[in-house]
Structures are given as structure tokens and as C-alpha cells.
């Protein structure tokens, strides 16, 4: 169910969580000028009605993962079932039904240890798929630790500063995190698996709750999390239905840009608040973005006035997104097979 009424406090809460996903309700309430109980009540309402979740995610490079953007077309009766099956896998995120409901777009997190199972084995054997296109993600301009700025416009600079100052040194989340430095990064190891599973289920889980999951002491959990956050090995993202915030129209933009101008165009697009994702990829198109707008007319205006003003884009394919089946949060292991 979608939230029908979202007010300034709700929007400010989402913005605050994007800056610091683990900020205590009391701290958020202090910054927003409302009570702790109000923040908790609003969070629970948005979680129930708009899918609001904070999740902790590993840096793909440090976790030994490569990321692929998968485009699948399927016969109409199979597309929704296929998207649902993909959503139950722990190696997928951001699954969308697009292009009239016959196209599926998904990010696949592949590892050497699984032998790229989804890409090489499961997808080719799945009935109902009529075409497959896999694009290796080479560089993220918006996405991952650098979150969508379109939902981060509610707090004043003073409020943002207050929230940032309350974080531990070096700890960031979402758009506030920027690009972490790599000098002190300690790679993720096998012992972090249960911690990551806990944070993937609930990024706001307490140290005591995470201690139960990991078998560590709460002090060990706190110390390891501070180390991983401070080094950029993990970050926190926010899932929330954009429709609840008034953004009802979305489209994937597949762009072609001459290689010599690819980075400049990518950086220009990254400055647009209307884009929730921008990445350089392999394939016939070499730049992909997701536009998130208030209406079809707003999307038209964005394409003609903002994208159209950028030089060196030689071609663009606009694919409307009908529904997001899965966002950033991983689902618990369970049914992982594809319908064959």
C-alpha cells in the first residue's frame, strides 16, 4: 500500500536516514524538532506503507563481486513470474518490470566462487525468455554509496551538519558518504558474512541484535562496524517507494556516447537531481541512467531540456519502468530457482 499523505516531517525523516541510516530516533527528533516518539511512529508508518527500510551493504569490489546490469525480455505471461523468482535470489537487486511488462531490468552481483551461475547457467535454461543482454558495470556515477539526491531536499544545511557531526569519524551513508578513501580499508572476510546478513535484513539492528546473529559480543560488533564503515567497506542505503514521495514516473535511459566524452557526460548527468542511478557500462550503449520524475510531463521536460542540452549524446533509448519488484535490500535465502 502506498502512503497517501506524506508531510514535511516524513520527508525530513527520509532525508535524515539517507544521511545517517543508523542515527537514533532521539537524535533525528532533536534535529527535526519533534519528539523521539514521533520519529519512531513515522518510521514505522513509512515502513508499513511505503517500504521504508535501512539496509547495510558491502562495497562490491571489497566483497569480491562484479556487478552486471541484466536486460531480459520475456513472453508476457512469464515476465512477472520471472521477476518474482529473480527477486528471491540473494545475488540480485533493483529488479524492475519495464517496457509494457515484457522487459526485466536487474542488477546481478556475480562472484568467482559461484561461477557466475545466474548469468551462465540459470538464465540460459529458463523458459519464456526471448532475449538477454548483459552489461558489465564499469563505473558508478550515482548509485551505491552515492544515493539519489531527489529525496534529500528536506533538511536545512544546519540540520544536515548536525546529523553529520553526530556520526563516528569517517562513517557515512548514502549521498552524504561521498567516495570513501581506500588507504585504511580492511577487506571483508568470512567472519563478516553473518554481520552483513543481519545488516541486509535490518540496517538499524542494534549491536545486541547483531551480536546474537554473529555469535560475537556486542562490543566486537560495534568495533567491527566502526572499522568497516569508516573504511568504506560497507555503507547504508535507504529503500522507500518513490511514489510515496510524489515521484510517480520512472524510466531507464540507455545512452550512447563517444568514449572520449563518456566521463564528462556521466559527470554531467550525475549532477541531475532527477536521476537515481547513473553508470558506465559495456554493450551497444555505454551509459545508463534511471530517471525518477513527478509525472510523464516532467519526464518529457527533463529529457528535452536537461538531457537534450548535454553535448555528445549520440543516441538514447527511453524505457518506461512499470514497477520495482525489488530494490537494494537483499532477500533472505530461500526459493532461489528460476521457473523452467
Keywords:
single chain, 340 residues, alpha+beta, eight-stranded antiparallel beta barrel, two-stranded antiparallel ribbon, 25% strand, globular, disordered C terminus
Task: Outline the structure in words.
With 340 residues, the protein is an alpha+beta fold. 34% of the residues lie in helices and 25% in strands. It has helices at 8-19, 25-32, 36-50, 76-87, 117-122, 157-165, 193-201, 207-214, 218-231, 262-270, 296-307; strands at residues 53-58, 65-74, 92-98, 103-111, 129-142, 234-239, 249-256, 275-281, 287-293, 315-326. The strands form two sheets. Strands 2-4-3-10-7-9-8-5 form an eight-stranded antiparallel β-barrel. A hairpin with a 5-residue loop joins strand 8 and strand 9 (287-293). The model is unreliable at 174-183 and 332-340 (pLDDT under 50).
How are the secondary structure elements laid out?
Elements lengths: L7 H12 L5 H8 L3 H15 L2 E6 L6 E10 L1 H12 L4 E7 L4 E9 L5 H6 L6 E14 L14 H9 L27 H9 L5 H8 L3 H14 L2 E6 L9 E8 L5 H9 L4 E7 L5 E7 L2 H12 L7 E12 L14
Antiparallel strand pairs: 1-6, 2-4, 2-5, 3-4, 3-10, 5-8, 7-9, 7-10, 8-9
Helix pairs in contact: 2-3, 7-8, 8-9
Amino acid at each position: 500500500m502506498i502512503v497517501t499523505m506524506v508531510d514535511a516531517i516524513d520527508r525530513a525523516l527520509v532525508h535524515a536516514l539517507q544521511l545517517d541510516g543508523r542515527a537514533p530516533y532521539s537524535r533525528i527528533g532533536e534535529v527535526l524538532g519533534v519528539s523521539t516518539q514521533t520519529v519512531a511512529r513515522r518510521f514505522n508508518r513509512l515502513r508499513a506503507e511505503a517500504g521504508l527500510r535501512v539496509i547495510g551493504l558491502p562495497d562490491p569490489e571489497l566483497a569480491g563481486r562484479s556487478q552486471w546490469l541484466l536486460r531480459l525480455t520475456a513472453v508476457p505471461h512469464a515476465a512477472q513470474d520471472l521477476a518474482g523468482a529473480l527477486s528471491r535470489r540473494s545475488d540480485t537487486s533493483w529488479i524492475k518490470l519495464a517496457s509494457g511488462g515484457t522487459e526485466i531490468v536487474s542488477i546481478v552481483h556475480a562472484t568467482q566462487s559461484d561461477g557466475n551461475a545466474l548469468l551462465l547457467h540459470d538464465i540460459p535454461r529458463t523458459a519464456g525468455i526471448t532475449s538477454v543482454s548483459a552489461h558489465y558495470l564499469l563505473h558508478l556515477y550515482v548509485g551505491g554509496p552515492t544515493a539519489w539526491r531527489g529525496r534529500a531536499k528536506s533538511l536545512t544545511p544546519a540540520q544536515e551538519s548536525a546529523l553529520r557531526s553526530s556520526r563516528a569519524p569517517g562513517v557515512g551513508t548514502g549521498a552524504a558518504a561521498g567516495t570513501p578513501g581506500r588507504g585504511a580499508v580492511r577487506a571483508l572476510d568470512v567472519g563478516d558474512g553473518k554481520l552483513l546478513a543481519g545488516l541486509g535484513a535490518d540496517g538499524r539492528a542494534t549491536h545486541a541484535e547483531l551480536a546474537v546473529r554473529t555469535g560475537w559480543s556486542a562490543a566486537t560488533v560495534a568495533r567491527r562496524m566502526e572499522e568497516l564503515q569508516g573504511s568504506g567497506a560497507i555503507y547504508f542505503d535507504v529503500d522507500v517507494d518513490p511514489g510515496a514521495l510524489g515521484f510517480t514516473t520512472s524510466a531507464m535511459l540507455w545512452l550512447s556516447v563517444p568514449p572520449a566524452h563518456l566521463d564528462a557526460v556521466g559527470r554531467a548527468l550525475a549532477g541531475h537531481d532527477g536521476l537515481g542511478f547513473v553508470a558506465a557500462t559495456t554493450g551497444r550503449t555505454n551509459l545508463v541512467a534511471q530517471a525518477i520524475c513527478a509525472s510523464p510531463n516532467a519526464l518529457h521536460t527533463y529529457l528535452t531540456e536537461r538531457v537534450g542540452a548535454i553535448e555528445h549524446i549520440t543516441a538514447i533509448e527511453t524505457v518506461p519502468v512499470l514497477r520495482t519488484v525489488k530494490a537494494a535490500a537483499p532477500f533472505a535465502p530461500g526459493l532461489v530457482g528460476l521457473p523452467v
